């Protein structure tokens, strides 16, 4: 019975972390965007600053400071909500800005996942390295299918597990990793499995829309 309780708590914790992230992100955006709108800071500059925060989080992870890295991932995730909100607030929504934001999101996600490879290499964990690779593939499939579908005029935002959820689960795994690295491996496994499921949902949706 104790085993079953632990298994059921993981998704609940991830869901709670995502709700906290969304709520905090909403408050953060409403507080910061009006201040930024009065300055000369551009939405693209915010996007690049978010990348710098992600690189800092990746450096912490590579150095073995996983808990602090998890906190940095959450902070970077909060800033990730600012660029689009600022662009809408000051009327500077552009097609290039959307492309840049999406590109930097993909780059940031790859950097975070790849920063975990040295962690598992030091532990000589082949399983961990494989799960990182699968999580990276699943994440990119979800984004790629949406990009290709929307390039053909098909709205494709479906899927049970999108980038905000992936960031939340990864952050949770990092925060719990000092207790046991298995929590991080489990988080990556969730990202990989649900990533492939979401990719399948989007592919099926695109197939139905093109019939």
Summarize this entry quickly.
With 211 residues, the protein is mostly helical.
Plain-language structure description:
The chain has helices at 2-37, 43-62, 66-80, 82-90, 95-114, 116-122, 126-151, 163-176, 181-210. The chain has 211 residues and is mainly alpha-helical. It has one domain: Four Helix Bundle (Hemerythrin (Met), subunit A) (Up-down Bundle).
SSE string, helix = H, strand = E? Answer: HHHHHHHHH
CATH superfamily: CDP-alcohol phosphotransferase transmembrane (TM) domain
Determine the number of helices (DSSP H or I, runs of at least 4 residues).
Answer: 9
Q: How many domains comprise the coordinates?
A: 1
Question: CATH topology, anyone?
Answer: Four Helix Bundle (Hemerythrin (Met), subunit A)
β-sheet strand percentage: under 5%
Q: What's the CATH class, please?
A: Mainly Alpha
**Major β-sheet annotation:** none
How much helicity do the residues have? over 70%
The CATH architecture classification is Up-down Bundle
